[in-house]
Write a structure and sequence with these properties.
There is one protein chain. Mean pLDDT is 84; it is low at 1-11, 244-254 and 257-264. Helix 2 packs antiparallel against helix 3 (69-90) and helix 4 (98-121) packs antiparallel against helix 7. The protein has helices at residues 9-34, 38-62, 69-90, 98-121, 127-152, 157-172, 184-202, 207-234, 256-261. The radius of gyration is 19 Å and the shape is globular. The chain is mostly helical. The protein has two domains: 1-125, no CATH class; 152-264, no CATH class. Keywords: Membrane, Transferase, Transmembrane, Transmembrane helix. It comes from Streptomyces endophytica. Belongs to the CDP-alcohol phosphatidyltransferase class-I family.
Length: 264
């Protein structure tokens, strides 16, 4: 979406500020219900402040108009992710309340399918909204990887770090920022990561089964990234016979993996 017009901080301030306030309220509830410790409280509070600061800065730089219902759904997901982050940070010193952590993560994953639908039905889809959605998804997967890595091993972190490694690689090799065609396989593999990690973290299956499932999810993710990298390599600018990128009404300059993760 081409952003035009004047940005009014008063129109968006209540949404982002209210989001931080609700995040702190959720942390207080966790303190009273499950006994959230100091590490969890501090980590959750830092998550709330950083989310508010980054989102506010992004809105000021590239937004015009109301915050919108889809972004409110994504903000609600971010609040749930903040709760999961606090519980995972607390689990290093004590046993985490698995049922609460699993419930928060599950609702956050379910809402991932809601904000996109709301954006399309209300005609409020934007690049910034898609980026916000993608960042919340990526961070939730990373946090779940940290939690599951405690019983299964640090290799699980590869799932959460792969997207960030891809983005870092695109700084060195700009052709990785090319545009990927839509892919149902890519979306399915991305969704599978969260489901498998939640099940593995919930402890409802034997450790060996959980390890095999997470390893399988990692293998699928490697395949998905590898396939996309291969496509981008063949379609890079200046390559003979490069496959043309998919047409868009408005140029989208986000890195390729971000657009893919956002479901665009």
């Amino acid at each position: 979406m081409a952003v035009q017009g004047h940005y009014d901080t008063r129109a968006l301030g209540p949404d982002t500020t209210a989001g931080m306030g609700v995040q702190l309220l959720v942390l207080e509830v966790l303190c009273r219900v499950v006994g959230l410790g100091t590490a969890g409280w501090l980590t959750g509070s830092a998550f709330a402040v950083v989310t508010w600061a980054v989102l506010t800065l992004a809105l000021r730089r590239s937004w015009s108009g109301p915050f919108g219902p889809a972004n409110r759904v994504t903000l609600a997901r971010a609040i749930l992710v903040g709760g999961v982050t606090a519980l995972v940070a607390d689990s290093f010193d004590r046993r985490a309340p698995v049922a609460v952590l699993t419930a928060l993560a599950t609702v956050a994953l379910i809402l991932d399918a809601v904000d996109g639908q709301v954006a399309r039905r209300t005609d409020t889809a934007t690049r910034l909204g898609a980026r916000f959605d993608m960042e919340v998804d990526a961070f939730l997967i990373l946090v779940l990887c940290v939690y599951v890595a405690m019983p299964l091993g640090v290799w699980v972190l590869a799932i959460g770090l792969m997207r960030y490694a891809f983005v870092a690689a695109s700084w060195a090799w700009p052709w990785l920022r090319g545009e990927l065609p839509p892919s149902m396989a890519r979306k399915t593999v991305a969704a599978l990561q969260g489901i498998v990690l939640v099940v593995a973290g919930a402890g409802i299956v034997p450790r060996e089964v959980a390890g095999a499932a997470v390893a399988g999810a990692l293998a699928l993710l490697v395949w998905s990234f590898g396939r996309d990298v291969r496509w981008l390599w063949r379609a890079r600018p200046g390559t003979r016979g490069a496959t043309p990128t998919c047409p868009r009404a408005v140029p989208d300059r986000r890195p390729a993996r971000e657009r893919a993760a956002a479901g665009s």
